[in-house]
Amino acid sequence: xxxxxxNAPPPVPPPHVVTPPHAQDQGARRPSESxxxxxxxxxxxxxxxxxxxxxxxxEEEKPATGRKGxxxxxxxVIIDDMGxxxxxxxxxxxxxxxxxxxxxxxxxxxxxxxxxAAQSGIETMIHIPMQxxxxxxxxxxxxxxxxxxxxxxxxEHMGDYALRIPRALGVNNHxxxxxxxxxxKMRTVLGVLKGRGLFFVDSVTTPxxxxxxxxxxxxxxxxxxxxxxxxxxDGAYIRGQLGQAVRLAKRNGAAIAICHPHPATIATLAEALxxxxxxxxxxxxxxxxxx
Length: 291
Prior knowledge:
Strands 1, 2, 3, 4, 5, 6, 7, 8 and 9 form a nine-stranded parallel beta sheet that branches. This protein has helices at about 55-60, 85-95, 110-120, 150-165, 185-195, 210-220, 235-250, 265-270; strands at about 75-80, 100-105, 125-130, 170-175, 200, 220-225, 225-230, 255-260, 280-285. It is about 30% helix and about 15% strand. α3 (about 110-120) links the parallel β2 (about 100-105) and β3 (about 125-130). The two termini are about 25 Å apart.
């Protein structure tokens, strides 16, 4: 999901090109903690996709609304990595059903996508780049959060993110398998969110994340990702993962799914999301499911 900082922004891949989710990384340069927010430029190339199943923890996570064990449920679909293409945003909006855009601050079209979402009535979040276990071999946006940063630098970065995407109602982590395991760093992040009235959705890129627990302790509205829909860029796989999300939503009353604006994902969502109402599923913005 990540692109290193360079001297000139690389070209944005055309919409028909699918970037492999585990593309070889080329390294990353650590951002200056005193520098202004650096652009992330092109579509992120590396993603952290832990293979997930319906665990007991997921089944026991109580939703903000809805009743458990029924034939109906609420489902929020977060589209991560938004901000590199306005065409993708238009295609997703064209589905005509509630989704939530999570925009990486600094991508080439981040502000345009955020403005388009506001005009289209689509909820937005900030997709905050955070250090992964493989960093620096695994690339991270030049404006991402690193464990080496002190609290002041983290707060400064958080403020810069909010300036780029001012209408965002919440955030979730982009990568972050290392960062989200560190309570001291996450406490700083969540403290900023609490002060700004923003919610947190834990993308759960590591089983050892402290994000959701700490958010609860600090009084920050929060939720967590239950299913990744598009670990594999295949329509049948994506439909199967969506089916898992539907089952969890019915079992628990609600579920949160995360996916990305790849062509196969957009095409599958356009076909599948309109059928969910007939299965007893109500699509909602993710802010409806945090507590």
